[in-house]
Amino acid sequence: MIRSDALAPLRERNFRWYAASRLVNMAGGTMASVALAFAVLEVSDSPSALGTVLAAISIPMVVFLLAGGVVADRFGRTLVIQASNVVAGLSQLAIAVLVLSGHARIWQLVVLAALIGTASALSFPALASVMPQLVPREQLQQANVLMSMMRGALTVIGPSVAGILVVTVGPGWALVVDGVSYLGAALLLLPVHIPRRERGTETPGMLAELREGWTVFRGTTWLWVVVASFAVLNAIHSGAITTLGPVLAKQSDIGERGWGLILSAEAIGLLLMTFVMIRVRLERPLLWGMLGVGLLGAPMLMLGLYPQTLAVMAVALLAGAGVEVFNLGWNLAMQENVPDEMLSRAYSYDALGSFVAIPVGQLLFGPLGAAFGIQRVILVGGIAYVGIALLTLASRSVRTLPRASGISTTSAPAPAGP
Q1: Domains identified in the chain, total number
Q2: HSE-up of 259 (CA within 13 Å, CB side)?
Q3: Is position 408 within any domain?
Q4: What is the pLDDT of residues 383-393, one digit of tens each?
Q5: pLDDT tens-place string over residues 86-124
Q6: What CATH number corresponds to the domain at position 118?
Q7: Helix crossing, 221-237 with 358-372: angle to 10°?
Q8: Which domain holds residue 104?
Q9: Can you give the pTM of this predicted structure?
Q10: Is position 406 within any domain?
Q11: Is 372 exposed, middle or buried (0-12, 13-18, 19+ CB in 10 A)?
C-alpha cells in the first residue's frame, strides 16, 4: 500500500469523527486497567478481592452481550456506543470519588464495576461491527490498522503514566481521566451520521433475531472454532496476567511502575506491527492471527521463570506484535465474510463465547495462586496458552481462510470446511 492508500479512511468524515471519539476514549482506558487493579489492592491486598471486582465487570459482559448485538442492529451502532459511554463514564467517576475520598469498599467497587461491564456488553458488538458503515469495503484493512495504530500509540504511554500516578498521587486520578474520557467520547460521536438500516414493516422479536445470528455463527466453522479456542485462552490470560500479574509485580522486584512498563512494552510491539500491516496485505488472516496470538503466552512463561522487568518487557514486545496480527486478521475475517446486517449479532456470539470463561479465570486463579504459588500457576497458564493457540490451527477452515475481497457481504457466508 502506498501512503495515500494507507491514509484513505481519514478522507471519510464519519471515520474522522469516530476515530477522534475512540482516541479520547482509549486515552483514558489505557490507564484504567492498571489504576483499577491497584485501587482494589489499596482497599484489600487479597488476590481474590481483585478477581472479584474484575469478574464483576466480565460477568455482566457475558450476560448482556447477545442483547447488545440485537440492540446495535436494531437501534443504530453509534447511538448504542454513545449511551454506553455515558453510563460507563459516570460509573468510573463514582469509583474514582470513592477511592480518592478513602471511603471505597469492595462491595461498592463490585456494584459500579458491574455497571461498567453492562455498558461494555451493550457497546462491544456495536464497536466491533461499525467499521463497514464508516469506510468503503476496500479501505477496511487500512481503517482497522489506523485504529490499532492509535490504540498502540496511546497504550505505549498510558500504563506507564498510570503506574507513575499510582505511585505518586494514587490510582484515583487515573480513574478520573478514564471517566471523563468516556463522556468526551460520547460527545465526539454526535457528528457521525450513519443511515438507519431499512427494516420490514414487521420487526422480528429479539429471540428471532438471536436465532438468525446463531444460524450464521454455527454454520461458519472457522468462526466457532476460533471462538471456542478463545473461551479458554481468555480465561487463562485474565487469570494469569490480569489477576495474578499485578500481585506478582507487587510482591517482586517489578513493582507497580515496572508492571506499567511491561504493559507499555506490549503496546509498543502492537504499535510497531501496525506500521507493517498498514503497508502489507494480510493474506490467510486466521493462520497468521493464531500464530501471532500464541506469542501472548510468552510473558506468562517469563513471569513464571524469571520475573524481572526487562526480561518480561522483551517478550511482551513480541506478544504485542502478535496480538496486532490476530486483531487485524480477525476483524478482516469477520467484516469481509459476515453480512453487514448480521455483523453485530455475529460479533455478540463471538464475544459471548470468547468471554464466557473470563470470570472463571479471574475467580479461580486467585485461590490457585494462593494454594500452589503465584509464579508456578502463571507458568502453567503460559504453557497451556501457547499449546491451545497452536492446536486451533488443526482446523483446516482456520488455516486456509483467505481474504474475501471479491465476495459480497450482502449474503450469508458459506460455511467453512472442517
Answers
A1: 1
A2: 26
A3: no
A4: 999 999 999 99
A5: 999 999 999 989 988 888 888 899 999 999 989 988 888
A6: 1.20.1250.20
A7: 40
A8: 10-194+205-400
A9: 0.71
A10: no
A11: exposed
In a domain? residue 417: no
Residue 279 lies in a domain: yes
C-alpha cell belonging to residue 403: 481474504
